[in-house]
Amino acid sequence: MHLSLIGRIVASGLTLLVVSSATAAELDVNVEPSNAELRENVENYIGELGDRSERELLRYSRIAQQQAQKALQALGYYNGQIESEVTGGENPQLTLRIEPGEPVRLRNITVRVEGPAAELRAFRVPRNTLNAGAVLNHGQYEEVKQQILNQASRYGFFDGRFKSQRLAVDPAANAADVELVFDSGPRYVLGDVRFEGDSPFDPDLLARMVPFEAGTPYDSELVADLNQAMQSSGYFEGVRVDANPANAEQQRIPVAVQLTTREPRTLGLGLGYSTDVGPRMRFDFLRHWVNPQGHSYGIESELSAPRQNVGLYYDVPLDPPLTDKLRYAAGYQYEQLADNDSLSQLLTVGPEWHRKLSSGWQRVWSLKWRHEQYELGDDSGVSTLLMPGVAYSYLRSDNRIDPSRGYRLEFELAAAKDGALSDADLIHANTTLKGLITLAERHRFLGRVQVGGNWTDEYTNVPPSLRYFAGGDQSVRGYDYQSLSPTNSDDDRIGGRYQLAVSAEYQYSVTDKWRVATFVDQGNAFNSLELPSLKSSVGLGVRWVSPVGPIRVDLAHPLDDDGGVRLHFSMGPEL
What we know:
Layout: H1 2-22, E1 26-31, H2 36-46, H3 54-74, E2 81-87, E3 93-99, E4 105-114, H4 138-154, E5 161-170, E6 175-183, E7 189-197, H5 203-209, H6 220-232, E8 236-242, E9 252-261, E10 265-274, E11 278-287, E12 296-304, E13 307-317, E14 325-337, E15 342-356, E16 362-376, E17 379-397, E18 406-416, E19 426-439, E20 443-455, E21 498-509, E22 514-526, E23 535-546, E24 549-558, E25 566-571
């Protein structure tokens, strides 16, 4: 009995739901002549009619006409004629028939900024949004006002106000006049920066991270840069910058930075794979800060079948500390090159001076002492070189992980002098150029050029780590890793004086995350610049855009070798 009662109640509820759904009122807007923008705006103004009955729609029709009139006026139609009709039935309907008439057009337009902001080139007065003869659009009028207010807020004109903000509409003449005159008032400046929280760092170090001096004219971008600087320093877990104009005195805004220091140590362990070196393991340890001056040190190591290395470094921040530093570095590397044709045990020690130039280029001066024991085929030896060097790099892209356009430039030069803690005269240089462009959102074109060379009269004294071996994922696909190289009389690959590798690739984006690719690679390592013999390959590939960058799987066929199709697997950003 009880279950039967519940069943009847549930059945009744379902019936009510069905009835409620069936009586939903509808709105039909007809604009003659047809104007999709006007129709959409009317529909948005009126909104959903809900479950109104026919009688309720009749009462509501006058309100709907008023709303429709406002929607027309918002887009410049002040002389519209609106008629309404209500029809009954299971789905009552409100029909609006609209004849918008002639639109109101802009006639006299004055948009002006007065005061110190008028002398600021960066403060742009919007002049192309409102044009004489154009149909009046209230949204555009409000947009111009908001653009001026937004710029005033960004550049520190916090006392600015509109002396005149007038939109005069003459429906009879179908004309409207606009007058917007903004008095910026004085520009505020940024005051002293005060650091708060549990920061253990020297105040001088923190002060050198601030991207502006006290008294600098206010710019919200400078406040954002300060926040970004503290975040990117690697010292802090939390950063909050407060530059509230309400706290200003005589147009000078004090800046308070609340800091929460991060844990001083980070430990990282990673596993990876590439067809060049096979499985590999990476271990990193970083001590983010060791003293109030912000010094840091770290250990980096990588283990794979052909190569094992470990590096240590100690960093001293310079000025500015976020981009410039002095690094003391040391490393040991054991590597089997060209599939065991050459072996190298390399020890390096020396300082590096890192600096970011105002042009955006990264520059690194270095002084490296290199001691290498090696085997080149049947020969073995020991090389000691003291090599001062310089490296420049520049990256421009629209995304660090997965760019759609951009380029990377890298240049490296180092030299050694026989007798100056070195046993050979040597100049070693490398250049890498990469470019990427995307057309029509789906068509991606990538190019790469790698050039390297050694200039010396004693090439037999150049160790394997400075010689060139081509082939592999990052060089000439279709050929095994480091398989392209000059050989000795026993056909052992011993590396070349020079290297050239070029690549052209086309990708088509099937979805946001998946791409297909086709490519042509060409290159080699050689000893003579006279018509070097270059190896070529062609191939197809698939790209999946992961959170750490594209993962690439390629099938490449060498055109100058008897080998078949080779599989290549790699990952990371394409620039």
